[in-house]
Amino acid sequence: MRICRFQHEKAIRYGLIHDDTVDILDAAPFQSIQVSGKTLPLSDLKLLAPVSPPNILAIGRNYLAHVNETSSARPERPLLFIKATTALTNPEAPIVLPAQAPDAVDYEAELAVVIGRNAHCVSEKDALDYVLGYTCANDVSARDCQLKLDGQWARGKSFDSFCPLGPWIETDLSPDNLTISTRLNGQVMQQSTTANMMFDCRYLISYLSHAMTLLPGTIILTGTPDGVGMARNPPVYLKHGDVVEVSIEGIGTLRNPVVKQQ
Predict the structure, then answer these.
(1) Span 207-250, pLDDT tens digits
(2) CATH of region 56-260, choose from 3.40.630.30, 3.90.850.10, 3.20.20.70, 1.10.10.10
(3) Contact predicate 220/83, CB 8 Å
(4) Dihedral (CA of 130, 134, 140, 143) sign
(5) pTM of whole model > 0.90?
């Protein structure tokens, strides 16, 4: 089942995608799926980020090859940081290079977990029972702010537009071994599989739920594989006119152009 969030005639609604049509839901899909009986053509709709999350929880250094390419220390436990919810942006919406820090903006393809119901102190065994589904994310990062200027990651990860999400939520999916990739202007930059995560989705959900209640709609970004722009020689950072595409097997492709801030 593919769940989308869309705008149509100024109204924002949720729906179920069926090929080229969308069945409109009566309400957000967290308590239950209630179909209204109304259908719209998919081509008439503007797809939005498929959820408006109460929190965006992100995991750093979760793929060993990415740890190695950045000469970082391998974490003993999940390395959590939090992105501002105002960083959220839609499929096809621009990633904006901020005037404050435009020169070292990087892409990061990530599998995003969408929590479907309150999760508090859940076990690894039961963790996936609390998942609504999965979507594609791009954990856009201003590397100069993240690694040199600030001494922590919050600002560099949270500029407006730095969390593209979508294009929809796929509910019928195992997260354990999915191909994940990034294309920049058509060139493959990242190519891996979620089987290479050091901390898998079950572990992450359980671990985080023992620290904080995971509310419905919470997004967990599960880390990025190797191939990021800052690790290349020379570095490859996003520039005005670029197009970034994050693709995950079984979900689809999240596409965003890049523009400079006006």
Answers:
(1) 999 999 999 999 999 999 999 999 999 999 999 999 999 999 99
(2) 3.90.850.10
(3) no
(4) positive
(5) yes
